[in-house]
Specification:
The chain is of the alpha/beta class. It contains 10 helices and 14 strands. The strands form 3 sheets. It has an 8-stranded mixed sheet, sandwiched between helices. The protein has a 4-stranded mixed sheet with strand order 3-2-7-8. A two-stranded parallel ribbon has the order 5-6. A hairpin with a 5-residue loop joins strand 7 (89-94) and strand 8 (100-105). Helix 1 crosses helix 8 and helix 6 crosses helix 7. It is globular and about 55 Å long. The two termini are 22 Å apart. The structure holds adenosine-5'-diphosphate. Adenosine-5'-diphosphate (ADP) binds at residues 193, 224-227, 229-230, 243, 246, 248, 251, 254-255, 258, 290, 293-294, 297.
Length: 315
């Protein structure tokens, strides 16, 4: 089983309780671990794979809490860093109709310092670049670029999830798109939501989105479609793989569970690059990744709802 290095942010989501979409009125917040790359590392580790988290939190009680959550979920945190800056905090309030109010207090996640030693670890393993904050500047963006370069030179299998957060890029969407392009160009595997595929490609139709992403360079394109399953596109063809029926309670983390489960299966192959060519191998893997995504929607919170291997593979 190969290692999967997941680079990016680990933060606290303070979710306002019962206050509609107005944060100014919120009085009570629930503390939840957040950060897509950390969720992906947990998804892999919970399935029994080698999920490794590379990111920075503060040397404070929140940072300690976040690292302990990853450790409890068997994620390797040997490459996580704790710095003097406070742990990154996101305050979010959601109304029943999906309106959000959001305050982002960016701290330690942007301080990730590049570690040249990691280059050896990345060699012939998998690298997942899936940070919502990595392209917002700071040391993290530089480290991200250097690990990306290391992955390219060391033969690592590269997975990219743009994790677009509209709240973080208001009015700067073009800049986001531009910054994503080198990753889309070199990624072996890309995971996109429909919104992301349309934003990045500037196209509306799914087939046009896929054609654009392949033209830029991504070999294996996955576009997750919630209850509809996943559209998967390779040089060989395009298929929509259905998900399983579930009664969703909280969809947070479904996409991270999906890509985590797919990477877990790819990491178990002798030759990870085989999925790019072999649809008979790939399509059942997508179906299992859909199952992991679907199961994650059946409980509250991302990390606690991520499935273990038996829930996905023994059904
Ligand atoms: P993201 O969280 O990135 O927006 P999705 O919500 O599309 O991603 O979820 C990822 C995957 O999880 C989907 O491709 C699908 O297979 C599965 N999934 C998500 N929501 C549901 C649902 N309501 N019913 C069944 N499967 C779901």
């Amino acid at each position: 089983m190969k290692d999967v290095f997941c680079i990016g942010e680990l933060l606290i989501d303070f979710v306002a309780e019962k206050q509609g979409s107005d944060l100014s009125k919120a009085m009570v917040f629930t503390k939840k671990p957040g950060g897509a790359p950390a969720n992906v590392a947990c998804a892999i580790a919970k399935l029994g794979g080698n999920g490794k988290f590379v990111g920075s939190v503060g040397n404070d009680p929140f940072g300690n809490f976040l690292l302990s959550v990853l450790q409890e979920n068997q994620v390797d945190i040997a490459h996580a860093q704790q710095c003097k800056t406070f742990t990154t905090l996101a305050f979010v309030s959601l109304s029943d109709d999906g309106e959000r109010d959001f305050v982002f207090s960016r701290g330690a996640d942007k301080q990730l310092v590049y570690d040249p030693e990691l280059k050896k670890g990345i060699k012939d393993n998998l690298l997942h670049l899936g940070a919502a904050t990595a392209l917002l500047g700071g040391a993290l963006e530089k480290a991200y670029g250097r690990y990306f370069f290391d992955a390219l030179t060391q033969g690592a299998f590269i997975s990219f999830d743009p994790n677009f957060r509209g709240d973080l890029w208001k009015g700067e969407e073009d800049c986001f798109v531009k910054k994503c392009m080198p990753f889309i160009e070199k990624a072996h595997l890309g995971k996109f939501s429909l919104e992301e595929a349309q934003l990045l490609s500037g196209k509306k139709e799914l087939s046009e989105c896929c054609a654009f992403l392949h033209d830029v360079g991504t070999k294996l394109v996955t576009i997750t479609l919630g209850a509809e399953g996943t559209l998967v596109s390779t040089a060989k063809g395009r298929h929509t793989i259905p998900s399983i029926p579930v009664k969703p309670i909280d969809t947070t983390g479904a996409g991270d569970a999906f890509i985590g489960c797919l990477l877990y299966q790819i990491a178990d192959l002798k030759d990870p690059y085989e999925v790019l060519e072999n649809e008979a191998l790939l399509l059942p893997m997508i179906a299992k990744a859909n199952t992991a995504g679907a199961l994650t929607t059946t409980g509250y919170g991302a990390i606690p709802s991520l499935p273990v291997a038996s829930a996905v593979f023994d059904r």
